[in-house]
Automatic annotation (TrEMBL):
Keywords from the named record: Oxidoreductase
Classification via InterPro entries: NAD(P)-bd_dom_sf, SDR_fam
Organism of this sequence: Spiroplasma chinense
A molecular-function term among this protein's GO annotations: oxidoreductase activity
Protein name: Short-chain dehydrogenase/reductase SDR
Length: 267
């Protein structure tokens, strides 16, 4: 992966490491020489990576990060390791009309997408400031940039991720810190995300925009996220960059109608 220099024995923590984008981030980090602490409710899939990368260390921690106390527990346990990178990736969505969607699922989503990410960002920024190095990469989304009828709470949670990250990273740059909090903004990827968010076992994935391969997105966004000194957030791929431009310049009523039409056809 180019010029990123990894010190021996450094670790990267990845939440939501068991599948999808988190698993792909673990593999990309291993390829460039990081040891991994993978976190998910069921990390058994990480065994495959242990076999593939026998010279690196892989810790697999089964933890439900929507339980708030687990954030402090994860942080305390991680103090035994020289952690340099934290990727706050665990997350899901609750699709549907707001009047029909489950309040319980949405509150659990807030606990994971917002509260866990917020707590881990703070704890590790403080720790990285003490050490003088380290980087938090928060997984936002292209959903960070507009409200979304029929997927309202998920998009709102990703707007929080983006807003928090951009503000904190600006503080860090203005105070000449070496620590960074970079927000990664993927567009649609073919993962289990869509099954969980629409509450279906085998949701048919539909997208009107070109979908990037998850491993390709992981490699490219990780490279940019680890390298950048000035950027607050990373948009990867020409289609996503074009969509971002469109949502910035088009009248909001047109953006909202387009997102409504895109999201209501999901199920
Ligand atoms: N897929 C997309 O199109 C897309 C687009 C933009 C952004 N994103 C974002 O990318 C991130 C990864 O999503 P994905 O697409 O890779 O989805 P995914 O395939 O469903 O993976 C989600 C990961 O999060 C873990 N997880 C779920 N609930 C958890 C909890 N309570 N505590 C700890 N870990 C938990 C899952 O493992 P367990 O089930 O074992 O806990 C799994 O490893 C999310 O933040 C998502 O919002 C996805």
């Amino acid at each position: 992966m180019g010029k990123i220099k990894v010190q021996p024995n450094r670790y990267a923590i990845v939440t939501g490491a068991s599948k999808g984008l988190g698993y792909a981030y673990c593999e990309e980090l291993l390829k460039i020489g990081y040891n991994i602490i993978g976190v998910a409710r069921d990390c058994s899939s990480l065994k495959q990576l242990e076999e593939k990368y026998p010279n690196l260390k892989i810790e697999a921690w089964n933890m439900d990060m929507s339980i708030f106390e687990n954030n402090q527990k994860l942080f305390d346990k991680a103090k035994e390791f020289d952690v340099e990178i934290v990727i706050n990736n665990a997350g899901y969505g609750v699709w549907g009309y707001f009047q029909d969607s489950s309040l319980e699922s949405e509150m659990n989503m807030v606990d994971l997408n917002i509260k866990s990410l917020h707590a881990l960002t703070k704890l590790f920024v403080q720790e990285f400031q003490r050490k003088g190095y380290g980087r938090v990469l928060n997984v936002g989304s292209m959903a960070s940039f507009t409200p979304a009828p029929v997927f309202a709470s998920y998009y709102a949670s990703k707007a929080y991720v983006w807003s928090l990250g951009v503000a904190v990273n600006t503080e860090l740059k203005k105070t000449k810190s070496k620590v960074r909090v970079i927000t990664l903004c993927p567009g649609p990827l073919k993962t289990d995300f869509w099954n969980r968010s629409s509450d279906q076992k085998d949701a048919k994935y539909k997208s009107t925009v070109k979908v990037m391969k998850t491993s390709v997105y992981a490699r490219k966004s990780l490279k940019s996220g680890l390298k950048t000194k000035k950027k607050n957030f990373i948009i990867t791929g020409a289609t996503n960059k074009f969509v971002k431009k469109l949502t910035s310049f088009a009248p909001q009523s047109i953006v909202l109608s387009s997102v409504y039409n895109y999201q209501r056809k999901r199920k």
